[in-house]
Design goal:
It contains no helices and eight strands. It has 114 residues and is an all-beta fold.
Amino acid sequence: MNIKNKKAFKCKECGRLTYPRRVRCLQCKSTEFEEVPFTDEGEILTFSQLLQLPWGIDDRFLTFGIIRFDNGIKAMGRITTPDVSVGDRVKASWENFRVMAGEDIFGWVFSPVK
């Protein structure tokens, strides 16, 4: 799925970026936001690796991380490789990442930039 359809939100009062949308700004409590498009790339701020995987995930590893997109938006998602470091550049996509109770579960998937 194209990430160009995904939006974050910028507080019109203080400029804080928020994803996902909130009713009020966490910083100034304003309720006025403007939409901000995601960029395609960002850097890994932190990550964690799971070796004991939950039911329904058939991979050998699962790496999750928090990424700061180039425009400052932060999001958490799956990283496609276990060989990562803080500061690595990644490219983002919005993908179906598992099926649970017959329903598709979508989320951020990040792949290393070569």
